[in-house]
Backbone:
């Protein structure tokens, strides 16, 4: 009996959450030829591209440093 009650409460809570969190979609943009703005929406891409390039360069530098450290450790093992 307890398992049926647990499943029933889970079903009720799931249904209430999905009903209350339902959002309305935004209105479609106006026609760009009528002066409503650019087709792409005018989103700035420069700052996002810079952040991605910065993260990629830091990741690449860390991998390169780890590779050099591995090569140096291997050379020391060979010399010994």
Residues:
């Amino acid at each position: 009996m307890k398992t049926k009650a647990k499943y029933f409460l889970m079903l009720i809570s799931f249904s209430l959450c999905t009903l209350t969190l339902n959002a309305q979609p935004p209105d479609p943009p106006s026609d760009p030829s009528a002066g409503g703005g650019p087709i792409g929406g005018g989103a700035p891409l420069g700052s996002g591209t810079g952040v991605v390039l910065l993260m990629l360069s830091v990741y690449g530098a860390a991998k390169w440093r780890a590779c050099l450290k591995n090569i140096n450790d291997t050379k020391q093992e060979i010399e010994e």
